[in-house]
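Hi C.,

You asked whether I'd gotten around to modeling the 287-residue construct. I have! Everything is below, sequence then structure, no commentary in between.
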Amino acid sequence: MSRIKFKAISPVFGAIVEGFDVDALPASDRLVLNDALDSFGVLVFPDLELNESQQLEMAKIFGEPSKRSRPMADRAESFPLADYMGLVTNVRKDGVPIGSLPDGEMWLHHDGCFIDEPYRATILYALEVTSVGGETRFVDMRAVFRSLPEDLISRIKYLSGIHSFDYRNIAERPTYGTLNGLAKSATHPCVIRHPNSQGPALYLNPLCTIRLEGDGSNLSDNESLLDLLFDAIGQSEATFSHRWAKGDLVIWDNWSTCHARNDFPAGETRMLRRNIIKGQKLDAYFK
């Protein structure tokens, strides 16, 4: 019988993992953890001590670690595993960030929605945290879909969203007319079928979704329809914010949740180590 237990964070999703031992994990517990990620959407492992290699090995519990999508020329990290993990930090050396996404608030988004095979999951491990702020806010996109009125679902059920992300801009949605070689982009169904649970989830977000396309969509209707959907996401009660402590490792399902970062004091150090789990093409829930 597994020693791992799960303590719910909110009534809808998210769980703290108890009884986990990174050095003694039977194969059966790997299945338990994968099922839990599908069910809870977000798992929090408190008070761990992990180096880069241990974090990469832990990622393998949940799938194949993916190489980073950020172009090598834009990376600041140079440690041995920098192809697979990076630093999310505001620390600078000679005025230049030593990692990625250094400062301030970051809008709600899905990691990897701007590539053709969006990441299965993201892992963040806290090395240094601020005294206030910097929380990661999560929204359960399965619950958001269930909350939508039927008439709104009927308008989007066969549509797709175009997603784009410019690494230089984390608090402003790019526009359709500004796509260029500096911004990655991909198209996915507005309502996806989760590859593991087979259930529906809304797959749109305020930071990266720039346009809808499909039968019945047009540019004049795009912004108003997106505004309705973004309001549903932003006002959802299926949400919680994780207050980081040093040693926390958090993994979340990028197919069923989206997330954001709260602002934090610029004069305090925030440093987290990030890696990602390889994903796959996402199918439409409605055919």
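If it helps when you're writing up: The chain has a mean pLDDT of 91.

Thanks,
B.
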